[in-house]
Amino acid sequence: MASEDVKASESAVSTFVNLAEEAKIATEGVKPRKHALQTICKSLIAGGIAGGVSRTAVAPLERLKILLQVQNPHSIKYNGTVQGLKHIWQTEGFRGLFKGNGTNCARIVPNSAVKFFSYEQASKGILWMYQQQTGNENAELNPLLRLGAGACAGIVAMSATYPMDMVRGRLTVQTENSPRQYRGIFHALSTVFREEGPRALYKGWLPSVIGVIPYVGLNFAVYESLKDWLVQSNPLGLAQDSELSVTTRLACGAMAGTVGQTVAYPLDVIRRRMQMVGWRDASSVVVGDGRSKAPVEYSGMIDAFTKTVRHEGFRALYKGLVPNSVKVVPSIAIAFVTYEVVKDILGVEMRISD
């Protein structure tokens, strides 16, 4: 009897061990997948936080930039950065400086999350193809390949969140005196969809996509290439143990933002003006002597470029550039550094530079 109990116990132990081994084998593939999913989520969270923090920090300048881009040249209200900010403060108060920022963050948080994550994935794919083509497994991304990865990331992020950007522009431009009052993001989305049709939510999409290629592409390419150069050459001892300080990384981000926005800015002006087409209450550009209340109508991107230059001159393509420059320098710098810092806090080993 005792021997039968022993045999039964041994059989039970053997069965348990076999089941444990089978469970281990079955879960070996689950852990990496779970880890990969956590890494993706953390990367998206870091990108979202980076976008929200950086955009809120420069919200007043962002609003002034848009107001300068679309204001009637025959009725100037905003004449420069300092005067423009003072005018907003005097007429709309402190809240006026941040009007549209909630909508902006609702757009920029997912946009930034998708943008940073898309850049990482595009970089991996492009690097793999480059290594296969060259036959060099140790090959690294060069500035041109980084530009391509950044362009891909910008197109994906812009397209995914464009309707939010469109209504954000209208919410930012409207004032208390505007006959049309959008009450918020979803009210603006539903109103535009109902009154102007679904295609209206993508007005200005083409110049946006064309503009995002050099803008986001150059941001990533300049930022990473400049960081690599500083780490490798280490001028003035800026790199310590192959790491750059937060201040140095902020400077790299500022340089990247300045280059990118200068190249792409005219397309941003055209995009914003095309977004206002169909909205009769917009404080947009008018034709003639300024007595007409009808804003300029654009049939497309080329038409918008042509009419803007014909009615207002080439300089109109750079309206709002000064507050935008003041805004872009800290905004891009804060976004890049916040992204990397948050990923460090969340314990994600991979950064954009890796």
Task: Chart the SSEs and their pairings.
Layout: H1 2-28, H2 30-57, H3 59-70, H4 81-97, H5 101-134, H6 143-173, H7 185-196, H8 205-233, E1 239-240, E2 243-244, H9 246-276, H10 301-312, H11 321-346
Helix pairs in contact: 2-5, 2-11, 3-4, 3-11, 5-6, 6-7, 6-8, 8-9, 9-10, 9-11
Subcellular location: Mitochondrion inner membrane
Keywords: Membrane, Mitochondrion, Mitochondrion inner membrane, Repeat, Transmembrane, Transmembrane helix, Transport
Family: Belongs to the mitochondrial carrier (TC 2.A.29) family.
Descriptive key words:
354 residues; mainly alpha; Mitochondrial carrier fold; two-stranded antiparallel sheet; mitochondrion inner membrane; mitochondrion
In which order are the strands of the major sheet placed? 1-2
Q: How many helices in DSSP terms?
A: 11
End-to-end CA span? 65 Å
> How many structurally independent domains?
1
Query: How would you sum up the major sheet?
Result: 2 strands, antiparallel
Summing up helix and strand content along with how strands pair, one would put the structural category as mainly alpha
CATH class: Mainly Alpha
What fold name goes in the CATH topology slot? Mitochondrial carrier fold
Beta-strand proportion: under 5%
* Portion of residues within helices: over 70%
* Extended strand count: 2
